UniProtKB/TrEMBL annotation:
This is ABC transporter ATP-binding protein. SMART domains: AAA (SM00382), PepX_C (SM00939). Keywords: ATP-binding, Hydrolase, Membrane, Nucleotide-binding, Transmembrane, Transmembrane helix, Transport. It comes from Micromonospora deserti. It comes from the Bacteria. Gene3D superfamilies: alpha/beta hydrolase, Galactose-binding domain-like, P-loop containing nucleotide triphosphate hydrolases.
Length: 955
């Protein structure tokens, strides 16, 4: 589909060429001026790399070397002090992971200190998982260092004006540092945790982490990333897991993606490590992991260790204003982690703002429109609370969801929303959707293999990406499904559902999932999120089982009308540890419905910076001006052409003395004059460059004629004329959105027309397309022929009274061409008409009732096909022995057997009497059953335009 502000549309809407040129010049000049004024300026930033030795540990006396880089704005000095940002990286990353973010913060006027956390890259020490005595105390010493820098502004002696920003591992550090050191002025923790034990040992019925289900996939990646965290500072062997110096980093600020995630490269443990399996992990962290990974269960000591590195116990100590950014596509730290952090910090009166975005550990930064919003919120937060510039950001809640596809850059677009009060994961409304399904038996596989796949760390919705190939295992899951929804539901929060379970062992580990199932049966598990539960004290029979409420992970999704909801209860999941003993459980619904939290808000723009708003405003003003011009022109055309020409009121198409001349003097069409009547299939013929396509373009309003008129059912045709709705067309090839299916493209096209869905004829159109089940596949997977068939079906939607097709058989195979011939002949019934342009003369001859032959921009013949063919210079002989007859005829002077007789004996007698030819065949003993004059449309065509004719050249 064309943009309504495309160049072609503007040309045909503006009244004169002079105005078009003037408007174009204005647009170019304004755009050039805006681009010059708002052109991106490379930040004047200088950087200083150094190994800093800090002292930390329980007593604060253990030295550790940290690999740091300090970024300063070009004009920062002792006389012009600037506020600071402490920028932390994600687990497995290094200071290089956040380099681009640091440079952009410095470009905004901040001194930025980045460092490689202990245990990673070139920094020394061991990994303690953001331990208050180690990683957090390291960061405190970095605050001391910042306070001593002459370029950094201070609030008091030894107290720098500083904000702390970090994602994932760095986000946890931001929270823990703000709780431990009151010098921090503001923090922006992203995609991070509240309780590390609950994150890795979740349980969705409310049990403590000691009863949780081990998230082995993510835990294994983290432990592997830390175990191969690169060489230590003393030149120990092993390649660094960090990005190399000078390597590209993600654009900032800030990167709300995984923040480095597990290790990005190979590495080895330091020489002399007590336990090679531990890598650079501290011994207590390593031991806890090995115990949990071996048994699949946590002990209280392991839970206590993980909680030691969790903000959960220190939220009441955080006084720094906090912007919490959490990802919706995150199977590691879901939205609920930020929810608990927000409530705990806000309880003490500290300013808190929450933003959800469509990325996360499984979704990266999300679409550009979404990451821009997060960057804007971060900059706004730091500018006010650290730099002291700008108004109070406010505490309204913002979130987003995927809204569609951007045809310009072929990426996804997210729409942001805001509401005044943060609702948490419970939403502001509730919607109950009834489910149905009997009690079902499900088998727990031995040793958890094979296992269902809901997600893979960093890979997101794997089951959706594979179209259901990977997903729930037959026999290992139960389904409960709703009826189609009568209206769309905007889900934003954590749904709940009650289930019952029975097991001969008295215990079951289950995984509860909520699918969105479209009318074609395709099921999507939003962001691969599942709710693991561990049920104990279960009866052996399902009738004795009590309902248990399961809180599913919070999601943001619009479930469209006509879709179904499906709750699946599975016994296995590749991402989690499950019991090794095989057993069969019975599961059933504990209630009749799934409860969905809903949320409504005000849409917000996603552009993050002032210059974008200015640019958008200027472009919008230009667009509005053009739309106004177009509206005036169209209205004037409609006023002028509201009458009906009485001579053509019942004629589908009348073209009168059409002429198209371009600005350079090129004449594509000089004088074309013809009519198409009801019941006719009219072929528009001519050599390349004869003017056929130009004629069709004028007919469809894609370009304006220099002279002449076109009438459709008596209405003079002008751009935007309402009578265009009575025409279906395929001109200049099909144009479809590649991310939509064939059927979705047809429906989208029909919605754009503004007509009622009852007026469409989807079933007939799809039968014409003959695509079968492929109509539900995405267009990007279509062949050229499939796109052509779908485009013809689109042209026939609504059964328009006049159908205009340009090369409809392009890309079709012979059987499909034959079927298209029958379709067009059937279509020109019930008072409808067809105009078809084609270079396949044999098909036109068999399909069309009438033909119009154009050469060099003029009509050289028109009328019924049989009249154009006329008398034949060739003869068709039906004989008993065609091969022997060929031999005889080849000996006759002047007589020529035509080579393209399509299996028949077609002879050019070249003036020799037919009776003489027949007599010669009979004398040779060849029976002659029939003699028929034969002339093809191709013969007539060549006679009219000449074999070497070249047209004037379509444009």
């Amino acid at each position: 589909m064309r943009s309504p502000l495309s160049a072609a549309w503007i040309r045909r809407a503006l009244p004169t060429r002079r105005r078009a040129v003037a408007a174009a010049a204005v647009v170019v000049l304004v755009a050039a001026a805006v681009a010059w004024v708002l052109r991106p300026q490379g930040p004047d930033v200088r950087a200083e790399a150094a190994m800093l030795t800090v002292r930390s540990g329980p007593a604060g006396d253990q030295p550790v070397d940290l690999d740091t880089t300090f970024y300063l704005p070009g004009d920062a000095s002792a006389d012009r002090k600037v506020p600071a940002v402490l920028l932390a990286h994600g687990f497995g990353g290094t200071k290089e992971s956040v380099r681009a973010d640091a440079e952009e913060f410095a470009g905004r006027g901040y001194a930025v200190l980045t460092w490689t956390a202990r245990g990673f890259g070139r920094s020394g020490g061991q990994i303690h998982l953001d331990h208050p005595d180690y990683e957090v105390r390291d960061a405190q010493r970095l605050l001391d260092w910042l306070a001593a820098r002459p370029e950094v502004r201070t609030d008091a002696a030894g107290d720098p004006a500083v904000g702390v920003v970090g994602g994932s591992y760095g986000g946890g550090l931001a929270l823990l540092l703000a709780a431990q050191d009151q010098r921090v002025d503001a923090i922006v923790p992203m995609i991070t945790w509240n309780d590390l034990s609950r994150a890795f040992l979740p349980e969705s019925t409310g049990k403590e982490p000691v009863e949780g289900v081990f998230k082995k996939g993510w835990a294994g990646l983290f432990f592997g990333g830390g175990g191969n965290a690169g060489s230590g500072p003393a030149g120990l062997s092993g390649a660094s897991a960090a990005q190399p110096e000078g390597a590209p980093a993600s654009a900032g600020p800030p990167s709300p993606g995984p923040g480095g995630g597990p290790g990005t490269g190979p590495g080895r443990a330091p020489a002399g490590a007590a336990d090679p399996s531990c890598g650079r992990f501290a011994a207590d962290v390593c031991a806890a992991y090995l115990r949990i990974a071996t048994t699949g269960r946590a002990d209280q000591a392991a839970v206590d260790l993980l909680r030691r590195s969790s903000p959960a116990g220190v939220l009441d100590r955080i006084s720094a204003p906090t912007l919490l950014v959490q990802g919706e596509a995150d199977t590691l730290f879901p939205l609920s982690e930020a929810d608990v952090n927000a409530r705990g910090i806000a309880a003490t009166g500290t300013p808190v703002r929450v933003a959800w975005f469509t990325g996360g550990h499984d979704g990266g930064e999300g679409p550009r429109t979404d990451s821009d919003r997060v960057r804007f919120l971060t900059a706004q937060w730091l500018d006010h609370y650290v730099k002291g510039a700008g108004s109070v950001p406010g505490d309204d809640f913002t979130w987003s969801r995927i809204a569609g596809f951007d045809a310009l850059d072929r990426g996804l677009v997210a729409t942001g929303y805001r509401t005044a009060d943060y609702p948490g994961t419970g939403g502001t409304g509730r919607r109950e959707v009834e489910l149905a399904g009997p009690a079902q038996q499900v088998a727990n596989p031995p040793a958890g293999n094979p296992a269902a796949i809901s997600s893979v760390p960093f890979a997101g919705e794997l089951s959706a990406l594979l179209g259901g190939v990977a997903g729930d295992i037959p026999g290992q899951h139960a389904r409960f499904e709703s009826a189609p929804l009568a209206e769309a539901v905007d889900v934003a929060g954590a749904p709940t559902v009650d289930i019952r379970a029975a097991s001969p062992t008295g215990e079951a580990v289950l995984f509860v999932k909520l699918y969105d199932v479209d009318p074609n049966g395709a099921a999507t598990l939003p962001n691969g999120l599942v709710a693991p539960v561990r049920l104990t004290g279960l009866p052996a029979e399902i009738d004795a089982a009590r309902p248990v409420t399961v809180t599913l992970p919070a999601i943001v999704r619009r479930v469209e009308a006509g879709h179904r909801l499906r709750v699946v209860v599975a016994t296995s999941d590749q991402a989690y540890a499950t019991p090794v003993e095989p057993v069969v459980h019975t599961v059933a619904l504990g209630g009749g419905a799934v409860t969905l939290p809903t949320l409504a808000g005000e849409p917000i723009p996603t552009a993050a910076t002032v210059w974008r708003w200015v640019l958008v405003g200027l472009l919008a003003a230009i667009a509005v001006g053009l739309v106004v011009v177009v509206a005036v022109v169209r209205r004037r055309h409609r006023r002028q052409d509201s009458s009906v020409h009485p001579a053509y009121a019942d004629t589908p198409l009348a073209v009168r003395q059409l002429r198209k001349e371009y600005a350079d003097g090129f004449v594509a069409v000089s004088n074309v004059d013809f009519e198409v009547h009801r019941g006719q299939v009219v072929g528009l013929l001519g050599p390349n460059g004869a003017g056929k396509t130009t004629t069709l373009r004028v007919l469809m309003g894609l370009t304006q004629p220099t002279a002449g008129e076109i009438y459709v059912f008596g209405h003079r045709l002008v751009p935007g004329s309402p009578v265009l709705s009575r025409i279906g067309a395929l001109v200049e090839g099909p144009g479809f959105l590649p991310h939509l299916s064939g059927l979705e493209n047809l429906k989208a096209y029909w919605r754009v027309t503004g007509r009622s869905v009852e007026d469409a004829h989807f079933d007939e159109a799809l039968e014409i397309a003959g695509l079968g089940g492929s109509v539900h596949r995405k267009i990007k997977n279509y062949s050229h022929g499939m796109k052509q068939r779908l485009a013809i079906a689109q042209a026939m939607l609504g059964l328009p009274e006049l159908l205009v097709l340009d090369e409809p058989t392009d890309g079709l195979d012979p059987p499909q061409i034959a079927e298209m011939r029958r379709v067009l002949q059937r279509y020109a019934t019930d008072g409808r008409a067809v105009l078809v342009s084609s270079h396949l003369l044999a098909e036109v001859e068999q399909t069309c009732t009438h033909a119009v032959v154009v050469n060099k921009g003029r009509i050289v013949a028109s009328g019924p096909v049989e009249e154009i063919v006329g008398e034949s210079p060739s003869v068709l002989f039906d004989v008993t022995d065609p091969q022997a007859a060929r031999t005889v005829l080849d000996r006759l002077a002047g007589v020529r057997v035509l080579p393209d007789g399509a299996g028949q004996l077609v002879v050019d007698t070249n003036g020799t009497a037919r009776s003489e030819v027949v007599a010669e065949l009979v004398r040779a003993g060849i029976g002659v059953d029939r003699v028929v004059p034969r002339r093809r449309l191709e013969d007539a065509f060549l006679a009219l335009v000449g074999e070497n004719s070249r047209g004037s050249g379509d444009r």
